[in-house]
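@channel sequence for tomorrow's demo:
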Amino acid sequence: MFLVSFPYALVQGGYWTLLVISVTAAICAHTSQIIVECLYEEDACGQKVRVRNSYVDIANRVWGPRVGRVLLTAAQIIELSFTCILYILVSGELLYGCFRSRDVSLAAWTVISTVPLLPCAFLQSIRRVSSLSFWCTMAHVVINVVIIVYCFTKVSDWHWDQMPVEIKIFEFPVSLGIVVFSYTSQIFAPTLEGKMRNPGRFSHMTLCTHICAAVFKSVFAYVCFLTWGKETKEVITNNLTISSLKTAVDLVLVLKALLSYPLPYFATLEIIEQEFFILFNNSCCTPCFDDKNKLNPWAAAMRIAFVLATMLLAVFLPHFSILMGLVGSFTGTMLSLVWPCHFYLQIHGQRLSWHKKFVNWIIIVLGLAVCCIGMFYSGLALHHAVHGQGVAMSMTFNLTQL
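C-alpha cells (generated this afternoon):
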C-alpha cells in the first residue's frame, strides 16, 4: 500500500532513498531469519528442535512471562490495530477523492468503505485470509503495471537531471519511516515458518522475497520520479493527468486496501483471543468456537465490535496519520529491528562469532536511531497540527558537502 508513496521519497532523499530501500531490505531479511532461529534450541545431539511457537514465546524466554507477554502483546496489538485503521482511512479518503463532486463527506465514505469488511468477523482460518491476500497482490500488480506502462509512454520527457543529491532533513525521516514500515513482516514470521511444508527453506524464501521487493520498489520509485521529477506528489496516482485513469487506479487501490485489511485483523484477533483465555485461565468464558467449529455469538459480536472500533477511530481520531507515525516509530522499529536482534543475542549469543554479534548490535543502534528520529519528527508534526501551525520543511542537508 505504501509503494505509491515511494516516488515522493526520492524527492526528499534522492539517491539516498534508493540506498535506504536496499539496506532496509537486507536488515529486515536478517531480522526475519533470526527471529525464527530464536524459536529453536539445540538438543543433546546438536539437532535443532522447535521449542517456541510465537514472537511472544521468545519474549517470555528473554524477559520472563509477565513482562515479555504483556509488552510484546501490547506492541503487536497496537501495530496491527493501527494498520487496520490505516486501511479504512485510506479507503475512505480515496473514495472521497474519486467522488468529490457528490455531496458525501469524508466520514460518510469511511463508513461506507467499512461495510464490506464486516464479513471479516466470520473468518476462521488462515487459508481464507491467504486467498484474500492473493487477490490483494493481484490488485497491487494491476496498479503497478498500469503506472509503469503510463510512465514509459512519457519516456521522451523523463527528467534525468532532477534527481536530488541532498536530503530534506525535516521530511526525509517520514520517508524513512514509510520504507521501514513497508518491510515489517517479522510479526508473521514464526507463524509463516510453522505453516511451511519445508521450514528449512524459510531463510532462502525470506532472502529471495526481500531482494525482489527491494529491486521492484527501487525501480518503481525511480521510473515514477523520472516521469514527473520534482513535481512528483505524495501519492503517485495524483500525478496521473487522465481523470478516468486516475479514478480507475484509485478504485483498484480501494479494493487493495480492503483486501489488505483481513490479514492484520485476523492476526490481531488471534492474539487477543489467545491472551484473553490465558489471562482468565479458560474458566470465565466459553471458547470462541463450539464443538462444530462454528463461531459462538459472543465471539462474533466481539469481532464485529473490533471492525466498528477501527472505523470509529478512523473517523473521529484527529491527526491519525501523524499519530500513527509517532506510535509506529516505536512499535515498528522495536518489533522489526531492535527486539529480534536483542532476543537473538540473548538466546544464541554464546555460540555466535564476534562479527555476528557486531552486526546485530549495529542493527540495534540503527533501529534505536530510526525510532528516536521518527518519534521526534512525528511529535513535532503532531504539535504543529494540533496548534494549527505549518512545519518548516525547506531546510535541507547536502551530503555532498561532507
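heads up for whoever presents: The two ends are 35 Å apart (CA to CA).
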